[in-house]
Amino acid sequence: MPTVSVGRDRLFEALRRTYTQEEFEDLCFQFGIELDDVTTEKAIIRKEKHLEEEEPSDDEEVIYKIEVPANRYDLLCLEGLSQSLRIFAGLEPIPTYTVANISKESMLKMHVKPETSQIRPYVVCAVLRGVTFNEARYNSFIDLQDRLHQNICRRRTLVAIGTHDLDTIEGPFTYEALAPKDINFTPLKQTRNFSADELMEFYKKDLKLKKFLHIIEGSPVYPVIYDQKRTVLSLPPIINGAHSAITLKTKNVFIECTATDLTKANIVLNTMVTMFSMYCERKFEVEPVEVSYTDGRSYVSPDLSFYQMEVPVSYITKLIGVSLPAHESARLLNKMQLHAKHSISDKNEASFTISVPPTRSDILHPCDVAEDVAIAYGYNEIPKITFPSVKPQLLNKFSDLIREEIATVGYTEVLTWILCSSKEISTMLNREEDKTAVINGNPRSADFEVVRTTLMPGILKTVGHNKDHPKPIKIFEVGDVVLLDEKKDVGASNRRKLAALHCGSTSGFELIHGLVDRIMEVLGTPFVSPGDKTGYYIESSNEPEYLKGRQAHIIFKGEKIGTFGIVHPQVLHNFDIPDPCSFVEIDIEKFL
Amino acid sequence: MAEETVLGHLEHNQEIPDSGVFSQEKGINHDELVNVIKSLNGFGLVIAADIKREKWLLSDEAQSYVKYGSAEVLIFEAVPAEGTAKAKLQDIVKSKLPADLDDNTKSLIYDKGWAQAMKNKWIGLADSQVSQKVEHVEDRVKDLLIQIQNGEAVGAKDIDALKRRRLISLQIWKGYSVKKGPNYAPKRRKAVTDLVRDHLQRDEWKDIEFKEYNFLAKGQPTEGGCLHPLYKVKLQIQMIFLQMGFEEMPTNNYVESSFWNFDALFQPQQHPARDSHDTFFLKVPSTTNSLPEEYVERVKTVHESGGYGSRGYGYDWKREEANKNLLRTHTTAVSTRMLYALAQGPFTPKRYYSIDRVFRNEAVDRTHLAEFHQIEGLICDRGLSLGHLRGVLEDFFSRIGMSKLKFKPAYNPYTEPSMEIFSYHEGLKKWVEIGNSGMFRPEMLRPMGLPEDVQVIAWGLSLERPTMILYGIDNIRDLFGHKVDLSLTKRNPICRLGLN
């Protein structure tokens, strides 16, 4: 996106008020431009020269670098930017640009020679009369040409702008294409005469101009504009003549735009003249020039007429999703520099006739009009309309993510039964009777007496029945246990647990410890010193189902969330397991 | 053996008062016993207290004196009563000494005995004649040495004299007294680091003792593979799209023609994005083989002179530009193909998404790569509005943890209206741009053949940007590409996007 640098104080003066940076940023955001950087002239120079950063002194002028949309050429200078914002703020009506009403006879003329079709076939021209420049306006005038050249002109390939002091030249003018050696003139900023082919060589050393040479280099003819006295106005798209250079004192400006794309040439010319006609004696009035071709074609430029577009009122409101009365839409359109005339169409449909000013070449289709209504209404004020959609069960999706992580470090998932016998959750685990368990009233067999309170028996039974499986056996399960819970209507509630086991020629205690660390890592939990409540740590424990000296609690945010250890040999014996095992069980709901 | 003897003794006795005595009683080498006591003491099975004793040790010379008598006595006795020539005395002495002594020892005894007997004035030398000077001598040195050997007390003066003659030297003896320690057991348990199968099979597990375990250190790192963080995020975002009712578009086609990448999107041929500065154009294959001709004609017309209510761009549209092949600069090229295909049949509403690779001819820096992943979502239906776009964006972004959004007007050649999406970043305390959105232009949709009242709302963002925000990564090269640190990928936690 193009960036425009403007002096903050000049901008605020033009906006007739000052803003805090935040207020100005908000205004930009609403309007669709962006305050990209706040700097000073000196800081820009320092940066270009790669000098050290210095403290800015108060007397330096603050520069706002503002990003503007790539299709809004009218925002590429302070004049257009501030005018658009003033109109947006309702401070000013949309200007009416007029072409001076002068007779064809007294109109300046540009004759186009047929050879130009070989290299750069189009030209459009205009005159600004009675311009008052000062240093700031003059710089802005030059900068706008640069920015247009850089953007819409595609580095002068599509369009090149030449501006001249009309009082130093005399019409009618001719736009010709001649052999390079036949073109001779003193170019801008030089003091001697060059032939065009000599000039091309000369500019190969010029950092700024060398990148434009390719546009005409190698062509048998170069485009050139002469006045009546054969004074060279310019060698487009490379350089203007020194003779007609504009200065601060220039009053009457002749503008020519040569091009390979006539539509863009007109946009460029319109942008130049609409922006700077505000400094003319007759504000917003531009003097036309007649361009005629040898084949008889001719036109008068610039064309500052308003483009008319029919837009149904309902099209706008449907597209933005806000039902606005027609007069409100019209008011919003005015803020965006679009005139809207309400009418009833032939199909008995309420419609706007939109008048698009010459500054708004970006308006191509009614959708562009609708967007402007939406911007003026405020994007962030448009009510949201939601679509039906579904949300996942957090606990289950979270369990799935953990399951994948445990499988990727080499543990195989098992899926065991919720129901078990009461001794499997008590005596067989060296524990007392489990008073937290839900008890089945009518078990068909002892295997279904209770609802498990731990994943341990299911996992141990799996090992007991897989004695012939090659060692080590590394298995895990993520599943629910049920505990009595007075807070629940039914008196019991599920808890999501994770358990894993290692069984081999050694118990693999350190491996299970390592798995605990890995689980904590994938849950984004840091390992901390005992007592620290920001992560997890391990604390020696004394639980009957594990061997003394090789068991520990996992403490997360100060709370015990699980235990791991070497399964007690008596417990192994109870489950008919001949090999040592280490086991871990964690409550994962604490990590939600 | 020694360990069991010590532990066994203490099972029935208070203590072992003296390890020296104990070693003699039990016939155990004292050094071996000392090692066992030290080890048991270290594990707290016994408590050992030091015992220190001094003891005089006889030299080899002194031991021969104990056996044969002191050298001076042997000399004295060898001197005949009548005396003898000094020159002959050595031979006489040697002949009288026991035959089992070698000649060197005999010479030594002679030298020492001569000097001592002379000093004692037991014998005298006159005119080379040696004679006894006293009647009778007592072998006190031998008696003292025997007393010392037997551990009997000897006067300090005598000890001093013997020490000076280097017949005795002091030795310090160390031993222990031993009592039961806090961890006393009649049989020591094995200290192990882990329970092993043997412990279970031999029923030894009751006797084992674990070495101290350091729970302040981490366990043994797990082994196994890890998925790439970016694709973990991708998977979650895919899940979000599915929950919102979107189906995935096929995006496995990196090579695209300018037509589908730009022209069909109403992107003018002079648009800066179509510069070689921004797009990779292909040398091989340089152009597309075919395009849908009727559609191309409609696209050309809408660019040149508009239609469907549009003014068009008013320029000469060139087929050669459209034919140029490139690496797709956005997945919207795929969306365009999908919408075109959709328009060929009777209209059905669709919700599409894709997450895949796109390419930009950009200088690589902290925030830009020449290739990255684009996330794109679109809804194609009748009667869609900006309100719907806001609604779907709020839904989508709140699911990836960005619930505070605001929208800025923006320009994009193929969407109108266009909205840039900003999200408030709680960490950075500012609004950051996270993506772009808009409604596809009629100049894009109508030439495809989609009905007039059909709108498409769409949005796009990079996969990398939200991932970098999520994981606090500020250099894109640390996240994606061959310079990524593998340990970062391994440490990366699960991606919880879509779970809030």
UniProtKB/TrEMBL annotation, chain A:
GO terms for cellular component: cytoplasm. Residues 304-384 form the B5 domain. It is found in: Cytoplasm. Its EC number is 6.1.1.20. It comes from the Eukaryota. Keywords: Aminoacyl-tRNA synthetase, ATP-binding, Cytoplasm, Ligase, Magnesium, Metal-binding, Nucleotide-binding, Protein biosynthesis. Gene3D superfamilies: 3.30.56.10, Bira Bifunctional Protein, Domain 2 (3.30.930.10), Phenylalanyl-trna Synthetase, Chain B, domain 3 (3.50.40.10). One of its GO terms (biological process) is phenylalanyl-tRNA aminoacylation. This is phenylalanine--tRNA ligase. Its cofactor is Mg(2+). Belongs to the phenylalanyl-tRNA synthetase beta subunit family. Type 2 subfamily. The keyword Metal-binding applies.
UniProtKB/TrEMBL annotation, chain B:
Its cofactor is Mg(2+). It catalyses: tRNA(Phe) + L-phenylalanine + ATP = L-phenylalanyl-tRNA(Phe) + AMP + diphosphate + H(+). It comes from Salvia divinorum. Keywords: Aminoacyl-tRNA synthetase, ATP-binding, Cytoplasm, Ligase, Magnesium, Metal-binding, Nucleotide-binding, Protein biosynthesis. One of its GO terms (cellular component) is cytoplasm. Tetramer of two alpha and two beta subunits. One of its GO terms (molecular function) is metal ion binding. This is phenylalanine--tRNA ligase. It is an enzyme of class 6 (ligase). Its main location: cytoplasm. It is found in: Cytoplasm. Pfam families: PheRS_DBD1, tRNA-synt_2d. GO terms for biological process: translation. CDD domains: PheRS_alpha_core. Residues 349-493 form the Aminoacyl-transfer RNA synthetases class-II family profile domain. Belongs to the class-II aminoacyl-tRNA synthetase family. Phe-tRNA synthetase alpha subunit type 2 subfamily. Its EC number is 6.1.1.20.
